[in-house]
């Protein structure tokens, strides 16, 4: 069994259940607990695993709205704007993108009005941010 195949199986289990114990991961990936521990430690050290999180169904989240916001940034201000966006508490996650927008931000707010305020009062005020296009998440399907 190759090292890559073992790593892939361990990562697959973690992606399905970030709270799985080493024993559960070992059983599902068909390796020993010490092997799981070794691989996970190495993957964290290498920056492959950057954190563990809970998946949330936006429809069932009380008093919160979740939106993916496509953000356009002027290329000469990209680094500074990205740093400023990462510092905002309302930005849960920030991704670079090859799609319609340079960046995609997961933004959480109390409701649509609050999201609009975050966009106009915070996101669009960052030097270099030229546009923000929200898409509200409605229901987690998978």
Automatic annotation (TrEMBL):
> Listed GO molecular functions?
sequence-specific DNA binding
Q: Which SMART domains match?
A: HTH_ASNC
User: What are the alphabetically sorted keywords of the record?
Assistant: DNA-binding, Transcription, Transcription regulation
InterPro entries hit by this protein: ArsR-like_HTH (IPR011991), AsnC-type_HTH_dom (IPR000485), Dimeric_a/b-barrel (IPR011008), LrpA1 (IPR049859), Tscrpt_reg_AsnC-like (IPR019888), Tscrpt_reg_AsnC/Lrp_C (IPR019887), WH-like_DNA-bd_sf (IPR036388), WH_DNA-bd_sf (IPR036390)
Give residue ranges for domain HTH asnC-type.
9-72
- Please verify whether the record's keywords include DNA-binding: yes
Q: What are the record's GO terms for cellular component?
A: cytosol
GO process annotations (BP):
response to amino acid
Show the Gene3D superfamilies listed in the entry.
3.30.70.920, Winged helix-like DNA-binding domain superfamily/Winged helix DNA-binding domain
Q: What is this protein called?
A: AsnC family transcriptional regulator
């Amino acid at each position: 069994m190759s090292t890559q195949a073992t790593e892939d199986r361990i990562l697959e289990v973690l992606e399905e259940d970030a709270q799985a114990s080493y024993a559960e991961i070992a059983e599902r990936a068909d390796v020993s607990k010490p092997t799981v521990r070794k691989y996970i430690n190495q993957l964290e050290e290498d920056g492959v695993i950057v954190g563990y999180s809970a998946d949330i169904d936006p429809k069932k989240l009380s008093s919160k709205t979740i939106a993916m916001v496509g953000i356009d940034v002027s290329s000469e201000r990209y680094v500074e704007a990205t740093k400023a966006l990462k510092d905002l508490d309302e930005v849960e996650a920030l991704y670079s993108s090859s799609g319609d927008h340079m960046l995609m931000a997961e933004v959480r707010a109390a409701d649509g009005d609050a999201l609009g305020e975050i966009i106009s009062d915070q996101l669009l005020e960052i030097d270099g941010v030229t546009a923000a296009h929200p898409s509200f998440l409605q229901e987690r399907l998978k």
